[in-house]
């Protein structure tokens, strides 16, 4: 995915659309207040009801009540036909439930065994298979992967002359490999072989996977890197990728409703949730096919992914070694590059220490979060392109109910500012990464409004003042800061969300 496209997805989400891959995993600063007043607080059935009725927006305005919302209402609002949830508490799956229907307009209900596309949650599962092979001394974390790649080699260039690509680089998205995302293929498409994908040859829909910066020099999310990893594991094991993952991870963890087989075998179609677009309509062919199995090929359920997360929790503490030793699991969950471990994002310290990954494919949005030390966590899977915001609201409800230290709504204070001062911000701003994207700011009756104009669409939203020059959105974690030059004239704006920052110059 290009930087411009990534930003379009990010900003469209910021004013009411979809998000980029990790938007709903942002933490929070408000102090958690678990429900502890009722005598039936610890009754799972009652806790489920509170979670179902307690969905929360990411922002709370100081002095204003945070109004809980019902899951069924938010599913309708986000045009999401199905949601499946598993909650981890005290190191076990405390409860799991499915909501809604497999396909919009149909009556077949979703159950806890209904399959969803896990998207990029495929990556940490693949990482465990790779680390298992490291422990068996079949591959090394830090040697040049070309030493074990047999069917294909990472092409040498000016970047690899300085440093070679290692398995550690692939697992931590620091290998310099191109292709943020992977290609989408539909029923009826001619599917490319893995070697054709690696070299960007027809019928592959993605560019060649090549090294674009010195390996290890920085972090850059790469589905292409995990596609190279897929070929590496095939070459070293001598097995088909789906079979290797079945034997090394899925079977040992009793993930009985999971598979890496692509396309999804026909006998599993009736038990799979159908993907839906932002308008609520079924996507072409019901779901997308991913020959890039390591990056996005897993079909699973929240309960199966919860079993995966629980095994990592237990293995880290030395209480289980169904896949990895305690030491290898600790290394997997140790920060390697930025906030990334070996296949997972790792955040927080002490009670807040946690690992997570989200999944984002056409028609499906999901997330997995688990705490390292408290035996808590959750997995949420949806069959909608708008399911990420819904998943975030559900996660905040779970976090409040179970007293998590994170994923609570952020508290924002609306500043007392004279709206007349906002007239200086009114005008057109051109995004620095694309001249085709224009942000229009208007002052409409004392309300500062942001309008995003891009080819084929216009989106609009109100901005709330946090200070005289900084504004935020209530529905999402997003802010804008207006910048003045030495003469006091507004020259640009800076937009921030989920660690990303983009600038737009004022043009009128």
Overall strand count? 18
CATH architecture heading of the domain at 116-385 = 3-Layer(aba) Sandwich
Which sequence of SSEs, written as H and E, runs from N to C? Answer: HHEHEEEHHHHHHEHHEEEEHEEEEEEEEE
What value does the average pLDDT take?
Answer: 91
| CATH-level-4 superfamily name of the domain at 116-385 | DD-peptidase/beta-lactamase superfamily
CATH T-level topology of the domain at 116-385: Beta-lactamase
Counting DSSP H or I runs of 4 or more residues, the number of helices is 12
- Could you say which structural class the secondary elements and strand pairing correspond to? alpha+beta
Describe the structure.
Helices cover 24% and strands 21% of the residues. The two termini are 30 Å apart. The chain has a domain of 270 residues: Beta-lactamase (3-Layer(aba) Sandwich). It is built from 12 helices and 18 strands. With 508 residues, the chain is of the alpha+beta class. α2 crosses α12 and α4 packs across α8. The strands form 4 sheets. The chain has an 8-stranded antiparallel barrel. Strands 3-2-9-8-7-6 form a 6-stranded antiparallel sheet, sandwiched between helices. Strands 1-10 form a two-stranded parallel sheet. β16 and β17 form a beta hairpin. The N terminus is likely disordered.
